[in-house]
Each structure stands twice: as C-alpha cells, then as structure tokens.
Design brief:
Ubiquitin-like (UB roll); binds magnesium ion; binds adenosine-5'-diphosphate; alpha+beta; Creatine Kinase, Chain A, domain 2; 50% helix; six-stranded mixed beta sheet; globular; 724 residues; 24 helices
Length: 724
C-alpha cells in the first residue's frame, strides 16, 4: 500500500467513526472532507491531461515547472476558487515568528473597456513579492534590500480558507526567501531536509538490495494539546492577553490529582466546539481524527492521521490557527502556550515520526520477527546513532520560552534526551552487540482473565509515557516538542541528523563485500558506541538524572543554552553539508530566537508590573483601608478587633514585601532592557527576570488566599479551570 492509500484508508475509517457520532449523512461527510482543497482529484478533473502529468512530475520528482504549465494550473485553480466563492488569493508562508503570514490580493484586474476581469497568472501562482520587511531576518537582509520572495510549494496542495463571515481566500502554501535565496522561513529548511533524507535513505535501501523505491518521505502525525477557557476570564487577565499564560494565581483547591479529566466524558460545550473544529479542518483536508480530554482541567488534545511531513507541518499550522478561530465562536479562548497554568500539566506536541518509501514501506515497521529484519535494524541503528550524537541539537529544536517552564517538571519529558526502545528490541540489539544470534519473542497475547473477552495481541513495545523519544511500534514519538511552535523546526533537525547517520551507513554498505556481515557490524558498533542513549526506565525519576550524567548525556535546562548548540562550528558543518541551513542561516536563527526570547520575557515582565501596580496593590490597599476602618469602628463601639488586626498585619506585611520586590524587579528589568548584546540580554532575562517574576508571584498568590473573593481583581484559577 502506498502512503497515499494508507492515509486514505485511515481517513475513511476515521470518517466512519465520526459519522456515527455526528448527524451528518454519509455522503455529506465524504463530500465535505477536502472540499476546500485543490487536491489530486480536483486537479485531475480540471487540468488538461498533459498539464496534470507535468505538474505531477514536479510534485513527485521536483521536475522544473514551465510557465506554460503554471499558467494553465493557475487558471484552473482560479476558476475552482471563484466557483467556491473566493475573491482573493494569498501566498501563505511561515516566517521565523513561528506563525503563518498572508497578504491578500483580489483576482480583480481592470480591463480595457473600463470594466474588470478576474485574473490569476502562472507567474502570480509561482512567485510573490510581499513587502514583508518587518519579519525577523536575523541580519539576512537589511531593510534597504528588503525584498522577500514567496515561492509556490506545489507539494502541499492549495486550499480555501473560510473565515467566520464566509469570506473565502485561495491559500497557496509558499516558501519565503530573501533576494539572495536565503531561507527566511520554517518551510524551506524542512523541504531541504526532506530532500537530503530521501537521498541518503534511498542509498541505504539500494545497498541493501531494494531496487524499487526511488524516494523516502518522513511521515508525521503531530498530536496537539491545548487549553480552552471562557472568553470573559481571558478578557479580564492582562497576563493571558499579553503573554498567553497566567503570571499569577493561587492554586485551585482541586487540580488534576483525581485524574478525572483525562479521557473523561467530553462536556457538551466542548463537544460542540470540537465538532465545529473538525468540520472546519476536514473541509481543508486536515485529517483530524482523535479528540479527548487531557490530564489538566480545561486541557484537550487533537490528533490527526499522519501525513507526509511537509503537509503535516502545514496542517498543524492550520490546526493551531483554526483552534483559536473556532474557540471564539463558542465564547471560548484557546491557549496553546506550553504552560498557561502553574501547578497543573502544560501542553506539548507529540511528534510521531517515521519514514516511508514511495513503494509503500514503513521503514520503521519491525514486522513479526524484528531480529532478522535487517533493513529495519539498520534504519533503527541510524536513529540511535543520530539521536545520541546530536541529542543537544534535537533538544535545541524543541526549545522555547514556554518549554522552559515544562521540561523536567514531572509532567513532560525531562530536558535529557534518551530513547525508549522497549524490552524486546533492546534485547535484540544488545544480543547482536555481543555478536550473538538474536531471536524474537513472536506474537504474544494478553490474557485478561475474562473468558468472554478476546485475547488481545500484545505490541512488541510497551508504552512508556515518560520518555522524550519513544519507539511506539512502527514510529518514534518525539514528545519534547512545545505545543505552540511550528513542527518544522524540530523536524528539520531530526531529518538532518538522521540523514547524516544514513549517509555514513550507506557509504559503509556500498563499499562492503558481504552486505549482511557489514550490516551486522553496523548494528553492533552502533550499540557499543551509542547504546547509552537507550533508557527504558522512568525518565521522571531523580535516579535517571544521576544515571544520565554518568552516561555523559547532556542535560540542557534552558532554551537560551540549547539554542547555542545550533550555532557551533559542528552544527554549521552538519547543516551546510546537507544543504539544509547555511552558516549564515543558522546564525540568523540563533539571533532571532534569542531576541524573541528576550522580547517574550520583557512582555511577561511588563505585564506582571502592570498587574501588580494597577490591579493587585490597589485591591489590597482598599481592603486594608476597609479593615482599618472596621478596627477603628470596633474600637469606638467597644468591640474586640483582634481578628481584624491580625489580618491587617498579615496583609500589610505581604503588601510591603511585594512592593519592595516590585521596586527591585523594575530596576533589574530596566537593566536587562538596556543590555545591547543579544546573547547577554537573553541571559539577563533568564537569570534575573525569571527568578524575579517567581519571587513577586509568591507574595501576590499568598495575598490572593487572604483577601475576600469579591475583593480580588482578576479571575481565579478555580474559575478559569473549572467554570469554563
Ligand atoms: P497514541 O496511542 O500515541 O495516540 P496512535 O497510534 O493513535 O498512538 O498514533 C498517534 C499519532 O501517530 C497519530 O497522529 C497517527 O496518525 C501517527 N502515526 C501513526 N503511524 C505513523 C507513521 N508511520 N508515521 C508517522 N506518524 C504516524
Ligand atoms: Mg501519542
């Protein structure tokens, strides 16, 4: 089965499942799915045969596209879009801000007779020139040469985006680069890394005797976690509006400790949101499949059926955007920040990754007898080597400000990269490493002890939820990826490090006289050199931190430190060797990420200062004023005021302490703001502002527990998490 067939199969079974739970009729759902996509079916229907063939050559093999073909495609695309109500088109791209960008142009063009015609040429389809000079370029272009170009990525189909008012735009996925061809976006390096990986993987396959596969594509299914809260609470919190997370807030009496939210029944309000979301996504061809309640209160997850990685990355951007758009229609706000609430789980994005050939093989499928599946073990070795050798780069790919609040907090994988391989595979690999013959355990069945229940075939890997990089049967799940970023970054790193390992393996196999012996030697050496990265135990435990240190595995706790790993001479060599990112492109990214980090921290700091000065302190002052009046009234009336006085003393002490901390914090902030060197600035924010914020928060959160609910100026955790 080809990847496309496999995806189609899963999508249609997914459709069945959803049809049962929805009131949509069978035919309406199949009609709905992909109805807003200029997909293969639409192309076949609307393009002349020759044009269609030429375009497929470009999509599948990267053959150059002539302007003639582009003109025909553009015209067909325009007619299709206009029939469906579009008035505008946009080149949709993914600048280094991590979100998507679009500038809309109407199809309207003046005609000679003073009227107008609807026009869209091949040139307009292939190339755009948005004056996008305000996007970060990290020095790759000066503003006087601010030209940035967008180039059509025909491997990801064009689609229609509909907003809540029914306004329809033909949306064309594009890459975004500078006048001199440097990548200014997230898509270009991802596409380059896919090419690089394919080339080396095919070499390995050839050496192992596969004659049919001509391309290898990484496949990806990103599971997206998110929170939903009522918009009225969001609107009342400057911290959420400015930074996407709560900077203050005492814990709710109930959190996630009862584990009653995870996989719990979905409430009607949320279910109705999810249904709308599914429909919007299905129309755009996004294979939204699974939806459920997550661990934290008010937290949820959406998982699509996997796709080839480039499309999966585009779709994940659409998922994040659509989540937020549809939430508003339901009076909700979707928070995709990694840590919107302290004390309960944050959000990540489980990045399920594998490699498939164009003749339909999943290269990470072990089969029933993995011990004699040489091809599988060779590709597995490549992964082990890549992840161990470049753990710190993988860590950098998953770094952002939000993830600093999550990694290692007993809810997400720790900052140490290791691989969960499962017992059986580890046994096989370790036996082979000793030069002995390995065997597989064969199919095992789980016996549940109830005769009426069928025996369940047991997977040959158990699940381990604590590992950052887990083998899950026929794919790897990279669990460290932050919920809010584009998956292109981490996957560009993953693809590239695997490319290098495959390149080394291919070179050895191509030179070998006895392929089997050489393959065995490769597996053995990989285990001896890189087996230390395999860990099947509890990654959340203290012992693992110590054990990992003994094994020499890096433990990088902050984003600032992690990004540095992508700016080393070694990283330059690796990424330029496979033409994924040049030295300049790497460094521009390093600068941009550090700058972004400092800006995000600055926003958090400013929002905190504003809330303390304009909301918390005034609220506490008016409460102490009331208390003081009560004390004096009681004194005049001859009543006892011990309780009131005690409370007044406690609250006043905290108020003084918070005020002192605020003054120190503001001074530190001013200093950080004045730092000019990007690296020093990011470090200043990390080392001074982060602890300052935490310290300030302690007093305010304690005050929250002392003041009457009606006197507190912002919505509480209990309200946001349980009343949304
Ligand atoms: P889980 O128990 O983690 O939910 P699933 O089997 O549902 O496991 O898979 C989770 C995600 O992995 C889904 O998005 C799924 O489509 C994706 N996935 C499955 N097979 C592959 C593959 N070969 N390559 C990439 N992603 C895959
Ligand atoms: Mg999963």
């Amino acid at each position: 089965m080809s990847i496309a067939q496999e995806i189609a199969r899963v999508v249609s079974s997914n459709g069945d499942k959803h049809m049962k739970e929805s009131r949509l009729k069978d035919s309406s759902l199949t009609k709905l799915f992909g109805s807003n996509v200029f997909n293969d079916r639409a192309m076949q229907e609307r393009l002349p045969k020759d044009t269609y063939k030429a375009l497929r050559q470009t999509i599948e093999k990267g053959a150059p596209l002539t302007l003639e073909v582009a003109n025909v495609v553009a015209n067909a695309m325009k007619d299709w879009a206009i029939e469906k109500g579009a008035t505008h088109y946009t080149h949709w791209f993914q600048p280094l801000t991590g979100i998507t960008a679009e500038k809309h142009d109407s199809f309207l063009s003046p005609s000679d007779d003073g009227g107008s015609v609807m026009e869209f040429s091949g040139k307009q389809l292939i190339q755009g020139e948005p004056d996008a000079s305000s996007f970060p370029s990290g020095g790759l272009r000066a503003t006087f040469e601010a030209r940035g170009y967008t180039a059509w990525d025909c491997t990801s189909p064009a689609f229609l985006k509909e907003d809540g008012n029914g306004y329809v735009t033909l949306t064309i996925p594009t890459a975004f680069c500078s006048y001199t061809g440097e990548a200014l976006d997230k898509k270009t390096p991802l596409l380059r890394s896919i090419e690089a990986l394919s080339k080396q993987a095919v070499r390995v396959l050839r050496a192992l005797g596969n004659k049919t596969a001509t391309r290898v594509m990484p496949t990806m299914g990103p599971e997206q976690e998110y929170f939903l809260i009522d918009k009225k609470y969001y609107d009342a919190r400057i911290d959420l509006i400015a930074s996407g997370r709560t900077l203050f807030g005492a814990s709710s009496p109930k959190g996630q400790e009862l584990e009653d939210q995870y996989f719990g029944a979905i409430r009607d309000r949320i279910s109705s949101f999810m249904r709308d979301l599914d429909i919007e996504l299905w129309k755009m061809g996004v294979t939204a499949k699974t939806k459920h309640n997550e661990v934290a209160p008010a937290q949820y997850e959406l998982a699509p059926v996997f796709q080839t990685i480039n499309i999966a990355a585009d779709h994940n951007q659409l998922v994040m955007e659509t989540l937020q758009r549809v939430a508003l229609r339901h009076g909700l706000v979707c928070l995709i920040h990694e840590k919107p609430f302290a004390g309960v789980n944050g959000s990540g994005k489980h990045n399920n990754w594998s490699m498939s050939t164009n003749d339909g093989q999943n290269l990470l499928e072990p089969g029933k007898t993995p011990h004699d599946n040489e091809q599988f073990l060779v590709f597995l070795s490549a992964l082990i080597k890549a992840v161990d050798k470049h753990a710190s780069k993988l860590r950098a790919g998953a770094a952002n400000r939000g993830n600093d609040l999550r990694l290692g907090a007993n809810e997400a994988p720790p900052a140490i990269i290791s691989i969960f391989m499962g017992e059986e595979l580890t046994d096989i690999l370790e036996t082979l490493a000793k030069g002995k013959k390995a065997s597989s355990k064969g199919q095992h069945y789980l016996h549940i002890g109830v005769d009426s229940l069928p025996p369940l075939p047991k997977d040959n890997t158990d699940r381990n939820r604590t590992s950052p990089f887990a083998f899950t049967g026929n794919k790897f799940e990279f669990r460290m990826v932050p919920s809010s970023i584009s998956i292109s970054g981490p996957n560009t790193v993953l693809n590239t490090i695997v490319t290098e390992a495959l390149d080394d393996i291919a070179t050895r196999l191509e030179k070998a006289k006895d392929i089997n012996k050489e393959a065995e030697a490769i597996i053995k050496e990989t285990m001896i050199k890189h087996g230390r990265v395999i860990f099947n135990g509890n990654n959340y435990s203290e012992e693992w931190v110590k054990e990992a240190k003994k094994r020499g595995l890096p433990n990088i706790s902050s984003a600032v430190e992690a990004w540095h790993e992508m700016a080393t001479p070694e990283a330059e060599k690796l990424f330029s060797k496979y033409k994924v990112l040049s030295k300049e492109e790497l460094h521009s990214r390093y600068d941009i990420y550090l700058e972004q980090y400092a800006k995000i921290m600055n926003i958090e700091a400013q929002a905190a200062v504003q809330m303390v000065k304009r909301q918390y302190i005034p609220a506490v002052i008016s409460f102490t004023n009331q208390l003081a009046q009560t004390v004096s009234n009681l004194k005049n009336a001859g009543g006892s005021s011990t309780v009131q006085k005690e409370l007044l003393t406690d609250v006043s002490k905290l108020l003084e302490s918070a005020n002192k901390k605020l003054a120190i914090f503001e001074a530190v902030l001013e200093k950080a703001q004045g730092t000019s060197n990007v690296e020093a600035k990011a470090v200043a924010y990390r080392d001074k502002i982060v602890p300052g914020l935490n310290d300030l928060r302690k007093d305010i959160d304690t005050l929250e527990t002392l003041l009457p609910a009606c006197a507190w100026p912002v919505p509480t955790y209990a309200e946001m998490l349980f009343k949304s």
